[in-house]
Design brief:
This protein is of the alpha/beta class. It has two domains: about 200 residues, Periplasmic binding protein-like II (D-Maltodextrin-Binding Protein, domain 2, 3-Layer(aba) Sandwich), CATH 3.40.190.10; about 200 residues, Periplasmic binding protein-like II (D-Maltodextrin-Binding Protein, domain 2), CATH 3.40.190. It has 18 helices and 13 strands. The chain starts with a helix and ends in a 5-residue tail after the last helix.
């Protein structure tokens, strides 16, 4: 009898081994946020909900600071042999992560027909910064474009149609001139427009370059076009808004304070991420509008934001669990809810067909602006050695905006440095 019980116990243990092994799977998950708040609560909620549906998996969000801090921590962790299983990092970090041999392509883990259909379900504009060399390295999640916000009350005061944003660069300047106010001493009390030039100056500038007919790099990430005449012309337009036309603050406009300036009615129009949409909706105590960016020779904006990546030093079980989580969190209903809760663009078209998103857009049409701009969007500036190549451009932009260099000289110097950095990758 005893031996029979032992045999049954052994058989039961063998049967349970896969489940027990699965129960041990923990997915460490770097998420780029510097401080606690609504976003961390949303991510924690997603993790908890997934675990309820998948009791064999533990999702462990690690809030890793800014995007810049997160990529630095991730690469340090790779070198120490203890990287996260998955992470949301900038889509522009793709080449860097590949060059560091830090990540695995999704093609190696998303192999089923269902998996492959899922990879194809995202907006093509977002996949431009997620695929290279015929492989998919990132999955879009926290994605954005740049949009124009305007104060409708200020438009009315200036004699402008509050429901008609500027359609092109000429109108943008004309409107900004009418919206800029000065006191008796000539001091500006209300700026017509602000385009931030700290934090992500290259990103805001890239929109101007695209609108003037040229994106800043090639798809392979081995060339930049900083000194093209069209790119120089785009920078000249930005510089002239401040230095020639006096409708934009001179010098550096802070990324972080631009929405605050908008709320405090210090300016009438601002360029910033659609990721600020919920922030603006909650904090603007006036009627505001949201529109696609004004066109130059054409419409255009770079995409922006973060992708999911899966790290190479994870186990097969961890990769499987990470894939399951990433598929779960990017399903249409959750992608829609994420867009509603944060202002980021829901990353796949069918998210906009969900009842929740349809209802949201019907009541708040601004939520669809970034989606509608995607046909005109291009891949965000991303190259090999991306941080240094981008820094060369940022330094040039700030030199031009502060008046220490002409736009032409600033961009020629930036291009020279970018070519030096990228030369090894063109062999």
């Amino acid at each position: 009898m005893l031996s029979t019980i032992r045999r049954l116990a052994a058989a039961l243990l063998v049967a349970l081994l896969p489940a027990l092994a699965w129960a041990q799977v923990e997915v460490s998950f770097y998420y780029p946020v510097a401080v606690g708040g609504p976003i961390t609560k949303i991510i924690d909620g997603f993790a908890a909900d997934f675990e309820k549906e998948n009791p064999g998996v533990k999702i462990r969000p690690i809030y890793s600071g800014s995007y810049q801090e997160s990529i630095a921590k991730a690469l340090t962790a790779v070198k120490s042999g203890e990287p996260p299983v998955t992470s949301i990092l900038l889509s522009t970090d793709m080449f860097t992560l590949i060059d560091e041999d830090a990540i695995v392509p999704f093609d190696e883990i998303a192999k089923s027909a269902d998996d492959q259909a899922w990879v194809k379900s995202f907006y093509p504009a977002f996949m431009e910064n997620s695929q290279t060399g015929g492989k998919t390295w990132g999955i879009p999640f926290q994605r954005s474009t740049i949009v124009l916000y305007w104060n409708k009350e200020m438009f009315k005061e200036a004699g402008l149609d509050p429901n008609r944003p500027p359609a092109n660069w000429g109108e943008q300047l004309e409107y900004a001139q009418k919206l800029t106010k000065r006191d008796a001493a000539g001091k500006v009390t209300q700026w017509g427009i602000q385009i931030p030039s700290s934090g992500f100056p290259y990103w805001l500038f890239q929109a101007l370059a695209i609108q003037n007919g040229v994106n800043l790099m090639n798809a392979a990430g081995t060339e930049t076009y900083y000194d093209r005449p069209e790119v120089i012309g785009a920078l000249q337009y930005w510089v002239d808004l401040a230095r020639k036309h006096k409708v934009h603050p001179e010098g550096i406009v802070e990324w972080g304070t631009t929405p605050k300036d908008f709320f405090e009615r210090k300016m009438a129009m601002m360029w910033t991420t659609t990721g600020n949409l919920t922030n603006v909706r909650n904090n603007a105590k006036f009627d505001f509008g949201v529109a696609m960016l004004p066109a130059g020779k054409q419409r255009g904006s770079p995409t922006g934001g973060g992708n999911f990546y899966v790290f190479k030093k994870s186990t097969p079980a961890q990769r499987e669990a990470a894939l399951k989580f990433i598929k779960w969190i990017t399903q249409p209903a959750r992608a829609a809810q994420w867009g509603i809760d944060t202002g980021y663009v829901a990353v796949r078209p069918d998210a906009f067909d969900t009842p929740a998103m349809k209802q949201y857009v019907a009541g708040f049409p601004a939520a669809a602006v970034a989606r509608d701009q995607l046909p005109y969007a291009k891949a965000e500036l991303s190259t090999h050695d991306n941080q240094r190549v981008t820094k060369a451009l940022n330094d040039g932009l700030q030199a031009a905006l502060t008046g220490t260099k002409t736009p032409e000289q600033a961009l020629k110097d930036a291009q020279r440095e970018a070519e030096r950095l990228l030369r090894p990758y063109r062999r």
